[in-house]
């Protein structure tokens, strides 16, 4: 035997000792290995069951992905707890669980906002207070919902800008969902001159607005109320039901104003405009303007 073989003998002997030790410990760890394989199979079946049930009950795709993610993470944690004692025999599952708990607390403090938005996203996906395509208004954010993810919600404003809002903000703040129903009540203010008959003007306005195509009088009839005494008019509040989208409300207001104007013009009901009366403290001296011939 040469010198190189003598140098390799200790390494070879150590390797054989490790293999023999692991080989002797394998029969004792066989139940754990079997349990880990069974757990992996159960996790796979659970993921398949979650996907099937989610599709059957009409869950959102994002919610199904979240449930699959949670099931996968739980499975990896369980498999890790079962594998650690096999790889490192001195470590017991209880010790690994304690270490995992302490590590989870530290990670939780470090990523508090991330986990808060994550849990808020799960609540939004489960409760479904609004859906993709709804028009919502939350404090200074207003627009159509384009996408709901685990961490944030994408809102496209009416001017075309995209606002990415954290889900925690939508959970902690009041959210107005304008398109929760197909129709929505909207109102406009219009007035007539003080010299006009209030009841007659009300009937004319009601008939004009009722004939607008965008007004859903089949849902509920329009209402015209004397609202207030304006600066130069008796003001009416005109409420009608129309589509719930912002463009529907604007179109309905446009058509209502356009129909109200000729309807009041026909019976010569005056739509007032402001008058200005100027009062001078001192008398104004009035002098005649000489004619052109006299000036020449």
Structural features, described:
- It contains eight helices and eight strands, in the order ααααββββαββαββαα.
- With 296 residues, it is α+β, with helices and mostly antiparallel strands.
- It folds into three domains: 8-110, no CATH class; 130-177, SH3 type barrels, CATH 2.30.30.60; 183-265, Alpha-Beta Plaits (2-Layer Sandwich), CATH 3.30.70.100.
- A five-stranded antiparallel sheet has the order 4-3-2-1-5.
- The radius of gyration is 38 Å and the shape is elongated.
- The termini are far apart.
- Mean pLDDT is 78; it is low at 1-8.
Summarize the structure.
The protein has eight helices and eight strands, in the order ααααββββαββαββαα. The chain has 296 residues and is α+β, with helices and mostly antiparallel strands.
The proportion of residues in beta strands is: 15-25%
Low-confidence stretches: 1-8
**How does the helix and strand content classify structurally?**
alpha+beta
Number of helices: 8
Helix fraction, binned, reads 40-55%
Q: What number of structural domains do the residues give?
A: 3
Strand order of the largest sheet: 4-3-2-1-5
Instruction: State the separation between the terminal residues, measured CA to CA.
Output: 143 Å
Profile the largest sheet: 5 strands, antiparallel
